[in-house]
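Q: Structure tokens for this one, please.
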Amino acid sequence: MRALFLYSEIAIYFLKCCEELAKNNEVHVVKWPLNKAAPFKFNYSKSINIYKKNNYNRKELLQLIKNINPDIIICSGWMDKDYLKITKIYFKKIPTVLSCDTQWRGSLKQHLAIALSPFFLLNTFSHGWVAGDRQAEYLNKLGFNKNKIKDNFYSCDLDFYNTIYKKNVANKTNNFPKRFLFIGRYYDFKGITDLWDAFIDLQKEDPNDWELWCLGLGDIKPILHPKIKHFGFTQAEEIEAILAQCSVFILPSRFEPWGVVVHEIAAAGLALILSDSVGSKNYFLAESKNGFSFKAKDIKELKNTLKKIINLSPEKVLEMGNLSHQLAQNINKEKWINNLFEIYNDAY
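A: Here is the predicted structure, written as tokens:
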């Protein structure tokens, strides 16, 4: 099978799935330029054919795809007009797949998309491939039949994070790290200032020896506090040492369509604190068993949730982390490939 991905911002976890697929198939990826807020360094496998979209105009891109002669096209959302026009040419000739991580929220914009869907989606895409149930609900409302929608479009690099878990589980039992961890862009929608405010308020209200470590870049200036440490943007290979020194991961997002980082850190064996806006929450958080959720933007509730963790014994927090690791195994690259082939075979 010759699989073509018309992709936006690629990530390591996506490339790992492509590498697995490329063991027995031909894989081509057209990608956007790197995001300056997430300057990942990639070691592209020779088994994957990578093309930079900004090196082609629309006519040249179309010729490239004609030369590839794909058996299936998977397109990242509908924000790229070039991708849409090219995919539409192949509609009803081969499987054309819309990948989506947008949750159904019932907004005016989404209701408008439902009205327009027959004119720009349902005449372009034969199938949908989504991150999870909230995204499947949206595609179904857009007019895609449920039996034409597959899930688990995002799968983290389980091999990498499972290895980190195995290395650290014994050490954390002997030397429990009292540290919360945040990984994400320093933007308002990530809820980073909510987290800082909640953590600092808790330190004033009930002083304790827990710290907060934050990894990321963005337009929000890092706050200065003796118990908050900023690492800036961190490459994947650098994160192992940090994960070894933290026990609880927090994603306080005000808006988070999915959050592959939750899957990654769960696999590494950390307990979780997630806002109710995090799309992957239903998959990796078992309430009160491997962590807690709170209402997005509610700083007081977040502060009380931090306090819940602090008041637990180290043994209980580590037990939560072990369950996180187990839940993380439910989505993997093998399922990712199986879903892709089920879409492919459904058309023939």
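A few notes: The mean pLDDT is 95. DSSP finds 13 helices and 13 strands in the chain.
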